[in-house]
Amino acid sequence: MKEINFKSLIITFVVGIAIWFIPVPEGVKPNAWHLLAIFVATIVGIISKAASMGTMAIIGITLCAATQVLAPGDPVKSIQNALSGFGNSTIWLIGLAFFIARGFIKTGLGTRIAYSFIKVLGKSPLGLAYGLNTADLILAPAIPSNTARAGGVIYPIMKSIAVNMGSVPEKPETHRKIGAFLTLSSYNANMITSVMFLTATASNPMAQKFAKDLGVTITWGSWAIAALVPGLVCFILVPLFLYKVFPPELKETKEAPAIAAKQLKEMGPITVKEWLMVATFIILLVLWIFGNLFAIDATTGALIGLCILLLCGVLNWEDVKAEKGAWDTIVWFSSLVMMGSFLNSLGFIGWFGHLVGGQMAHLSWQLAFPVIILVYSYCHYMFASATAQVAAMYSVFLAVGIAVGVPGTMLAIFLGACASLMGSLTHYGHGPAPIFFGSTYVDLKDWWKQGFFMSVLFLLVWFLVGGLWWKVIGLW
């Protein structure tokens, strides 16, 4: 019972019941409106932490089946529709990628990669930052949980280096030595790497699925190409920007490469299983990037990768069963995608998009585009994860943009990116935030202040550099 917040749970049900009994607007099907009530209540429960995300997802699925909002008068079809999310290939892509990511952690390959970059680049705070961030970038395509990537690989190494450089969590006067700088650099770099690949964080495939429901098709390759240039520019600028506005007291970290070299020596030579992990990773990237040439979609590619790891002994079935994050994601992802998809197929998203779009009809798409992005982006203050924001708002904002003429693929990818990029705003804005904030190196005021500055930097780069790049590749 400890995971249940009864006060928040009561508020959640009150919100759902209130929406359910509001008179159904003209042009909306009654069951679509009632599904909205369940969906909004589920999102409110997730945001307010009334219960775990998985618990709220199961409650949402159960209510959809019990009330028959997905197939009025047909209980069998209703339960089939309520469970339909579990048959979605996008959801299994993320689940499979979690399993594959376990190989990086189990073999130690992820840690070896991070220490290798620190050994080469770590003679200065900027070099340390780029070393840690580059390791994150390399791991991002194959580790879909940026929380696991940050918490399982990057954060422990970052903190160890900071402590060895004299930044001790228990001594606030030492935080600005280097710990605070590395904390904000590593966290914000994680937000950037999370949007550069479709498989880098769970909210991206959810955005892909909702975009497809609205007629916008995005592949692994098209997402990576669109995000490549603005992503790399942000990746380069973040440490430089922080070094200017939030500089570390230390200007040299000559000891860091020696620390990394010692850790690598203790790890020993690269093992056969690590080489197998590298080979599998390369195969996965080839299948994800060029899968269309072989008639292999991204989920099939992930299945092939997992089979290779299981057959080679890099992973065993116990590893797959024990990967709680994957099974948890599959459950709540299935619930939210199912409800979001049916809100669209039952006509609610289209109705609401045209309703709001009508209010913006006097605007050209060039003016409507930044308005949509800015409103969507700064609504992230209300959310504790990119997934919750995408589930609650993505389809509506994309539908509004399409209704006023914004090029669909450009808007779909930008909105998908904003949900993660805006994790920079708060100490709860994305899964890795509590991990890095919990180091105590950065106080709340500085986190929010630098987070806002970072959000402005991200949006400027994506509007200006991204806009020019998307023109070159024909997205508008």
TrEMBL record:
Keyword Transmembrane helix: yes
UniProt xrefs under InterPro entries: CitT-rel (IPR030676), SLC13A/DASS (IPR001898)
Transmembrane segments: 7-25, 31-47, 54-71, 91-109, 178-200, 220-243, 275-295, 301-318, 330-353, 365-384, 396-422, 451-470
rRNA processing recorded as keyword: no
GO annotations of cellular component type: membrane
Keywords: Membrane, Transmembrane, Transmembrane helix
Gene Ontology molecular function terms on file: transmembrane transporter activity
Record localization: Membrane
Membrane topology according to the record: Multi-pass membrane protein
Main localization of the protein described in the UniProt heading: membrane
Family in the record: Belongs to the SLC13A/DASS transporter (TC 2.A.47) family. DIT1 subfamily.
NCBIfam families documented for this protein: dass
The protein, known as: DASS family sodium-coupled anion symporter
